[in-house]
């Protein structure tokens, strides 16, 4: 039996290809580093792996201490494939024989090592190595806009999605160009460690106004966070951590160190919405997750999300969504 006091360990293996784009590694893994500091329930343990112990990077800085590609991955591992630069600062356009051999070694390793239960996430052009290994066959996926044609060629049965920050299809996760890897990793952190942790990390990285993978709307958990005002962040962090609590303006004002009047004024100035609007948005977002992932009836969803009744949930929901929650539940559970 698992001890609830013990953190859940998620082993993360970062594949470092030749000409590695440093932002593809530094951005997403910085998300994991900060997530480990923000909470103790989940621990991301990171190992950098590749065919060569030293790799040249996109900006000419060598990456050293890369561990060999392991023979077998532990159950529940997450493999992250970073992208490569076409024209690094130092090496020019031509790939060396060693670089070509290293890329072939990564492709062969992916074919051997990735099995059911292992999640594979690609950043930027890392999707091309995954595609060449057959990892994206029959999957929804994306990549950097400059690599779309190559991805379609390498994975002809894949459903390549344009204009997406990231795409999740079962155990395959792919992201668009470079900084979109941060968005993908925030999504992974939110699933593993909770939205409050992901929001805290996003706040640290100052990447609040980012979209969901295939959602044309701003993520409700990050909406209204495109500011640096500490008083409002304290109030928002409290609401995100427990949307169902009875959050009055007075209660949030006490918690954030402002008067109710000043908090209301600052909230409107910094977020473009009222305190009540923000609380209701978080509750609707929580209800949306319960509709997608549970069989609770509408009344139970409403109560657990902090609404007094299903009627109140529907009223708040209809201010933000065109279709009612009952219709949304069917669509969400079908993965639409």
Automatic annotation (TrEMBL):
- Domain HTH araC/xylS-type intervals: 233-331
Q: Which InterPro entries match?
A: Class_I_gatase-like, DJ-1/PfpI, Homeodomain-like_sf, HTH_AraC, INH-QAR
Q: Name one Pfam family in it.
A: DJ-1_PfpI
Q: Which SUPFAM superfamilies match?
A: Class I glutamine amidotransferase-like, Homeodomain-like
UniProt keyword terms in alphabetical order = Transcription, Transcription regulation
* Protein name (record): Transcriptional regulator, AraC family
User: What is the source species?
Assistant: Rhizobium leguminosarum bv. trifolii (strain WSM2304)
């Amino acid at each position: 039996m698992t001890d609830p006091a013990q953190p859940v360990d998620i082993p993360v293996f970062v594949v470092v290809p030749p000409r590695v784009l440093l932002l593809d590694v530094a951005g997403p893994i910085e998300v994991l580093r900060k997530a480990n500091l923000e909470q103790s329930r989940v621990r991301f343990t990171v190992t950098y792996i590749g065919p060569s112990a030293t790799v040249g990077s996109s900006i000419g800085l060598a990456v050293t201490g890369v561990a060999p590609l392991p023979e077998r991955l532990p159950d529940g591992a997450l493999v992250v494939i970073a992208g490569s630069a076409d024209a690094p600062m130092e090496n020019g356009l031509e790939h060396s024989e060693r670089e070509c051999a290293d890329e072939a070694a990564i492709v062969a390793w992916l074919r051997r090592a990735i099995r059911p239960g292992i999640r594979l996430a690609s950043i930027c052009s890392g999707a091309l190595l995954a595609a060449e290994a057959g990892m994206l066959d029959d999957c929804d996926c994306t990549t950097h806009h400059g690599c779309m044609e190559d991805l379609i060629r390498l994975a002809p049965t894949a459903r390549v999605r344009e204009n997406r920050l990231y795409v999740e299809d079962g155990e395959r996760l792919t992201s668009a160009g470079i900084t979109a890897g941060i968005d993908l990793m925030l999504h992974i952190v939110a699933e593993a460690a909770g939205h409050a942790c992901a929001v805290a990390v996003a706040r640290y990285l100052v990447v609040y106004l980012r979209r969901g993978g295939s959602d044309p709307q701003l993520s409700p958990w990050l909406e209204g966070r495109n500011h640096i005002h500490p008083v409002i962040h304290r109030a928002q962090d409290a609401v995100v951590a427990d949307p169902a609590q009875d959050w009055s303006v007075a209660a949030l004002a006490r918690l954030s160190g402002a008067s109710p009047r000043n908090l209301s004024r600052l909230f409107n100035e910094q977020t473009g919405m009222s305190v009540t609007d923000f609380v209701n948005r978080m509750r609707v977002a929580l209800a949306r997750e319960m509709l997608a992932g549970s069989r609770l009836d509408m009344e139970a969803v409403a109560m657990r999300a902090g609404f007094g009744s299903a009627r109140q949930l529907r009223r708040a929901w209809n201010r933000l969504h065109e279709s009612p929650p009952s219709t949304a539940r069917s669509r969400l559970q079908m993965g639409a």
